[in-house]
Amino acid sequence: MKWIGLLLFLPAPGWAQQGSPLANPHGTLAVACNVCHSPLAWAPARISAEFDHGKTARFPLAGAHATATCRACHATLDFRGASTSCASCHRDPHRGEVGTECSRCHTTRTFLDRAAMTRAHQLTRFPLAGAHLTVDCESCHAAQQGRLTFVAVAVECSSCHLRDYQAARDPDHTAVGYTTDCAQCHAAVTWLRTRFDHAATGFALTGAHLRITCSRCHGVGQFQAMPSTCASCHQADYDGTTDPNHRAAQFPTDCASCHSTARWTGARFDHDRFFPIFSGAHQGKWSSCSTCHIDSNDFRQFGCVQCHQDAHRGRGYTSQQCYSCHPSGRGGD
What we know:
mainly alpha
């Protein structure tokens, strides 16, 4: 009961005159004492949920600011004149290179939040894309004299990727004299996938040609005056083929006349360019090449009389004579 009586007769701090022991030490702060203090004791102060720092001080407390102690920003009990600028509390590790407004790149949740940094970076002369979005700031903004560098940072590819350029061996970029502008061939998404327009060289890559390494055709670095004929790469395949024997049959070395770039096997010789067997009277009259080409080592030789021996009633024409009169395989030509 004596405590209740004491509380009832204690003068409220708001009634105190300036200079008295109960004068408001917080300057012009117009907030009831019980918002922060208990009637049992002034200390420790306990901030009530009713206190709105954003409304009272025009500085909303959010993120890490909400967990900071009052003394972290208010060096004295007089809250008048407390600065709301970031630099008043946070030492600028960038030494003014990017301004003193931390919120341009950082959030109150954490100084390591990259979202705001990325948005700010998109307004620079080097917008981040692809894998560049995932690298640490220190990778490009190297520390000099104990701080990161942000002003006058080079944006050329070689400023970060010169070692990659020099180490490249397939092909050897230095030996070939490739440009150091990596973006000409590489994308920011992945380093290993290039976008060099090979079609612009006059030899478009299709099918299996897309899957081979550059060195398969260009050796250790020959890129100028490269032959584009099939035989320049596939002469050994041509010479080693025995079914049929391409060399003996004197097939053309233009592989594309029978093969496609999709796959080497399953070639289809366009026989109808020379003599129609997939259309006309000979369609379906043969089962294999050997039906007409009796010498598998020489496809220049062919036989007509096996099937047409009585065409002229035993006059003994040779197959070559048949062809000389019937080049299209039709009886009336």
